[in-house]
């Protein structure tokens, strides 16, 4: 199952995150962890120190894998 967090609602789907990833625009969505794909337009802040998390516009904190942190260090929010 996949949980989809939107601004004010959460949806649950029986599709995998990989199937959603193939449908999403790669210029707008990025996989930052094996369990998370985010819309870059809703990223408020990237906390690169410590665990490396993204703060989303809905205040949700998303973990970022070590491999993706290198890519996100060049990402300006």
What does this structure look like?
The chain is an alpha+beta fold and 77 residues long. The chain is 18% helix and 38% strand. It has two helices and seven strands, in the order ββαβββββα. The chain has helices spanning 17-23, 66-72; strands spanning 2-5, 10-13, 29-33, 36-39, 43-47, 53-56, 61-63. The strands form three sheets. The chain has a three-stranded antiparallel β-sheet, with no helix packed on it. A hairpin with a 4-residue loop joins β1 and β2 (10-13). The longest helix has 7 residues, at 17-23. The relative contact order is 0.18.
Q: Shape from CA axes?
A: globular
Terminal CA distance: 30 Å
Number of strands: 7
**Biggest sheet features:** 3 strands, antiparallel
């Amino acid at each position: 199952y996949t949980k989809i967090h939107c601004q004010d609602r959460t949806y649950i789907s029986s599709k995998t995150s990989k199937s959603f990833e193939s449908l999403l625009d790669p210029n707008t969505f990025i996989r930052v962890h094996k369990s998370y794909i985010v819309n870059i337009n809703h990223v408020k802040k990237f906390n690169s120190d410590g665990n490396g998390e993204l703060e989303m516009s809905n205040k949700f904190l998303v973990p970022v894998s070590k491999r993706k942190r290198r890519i996100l260090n060049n990402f300006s929010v």
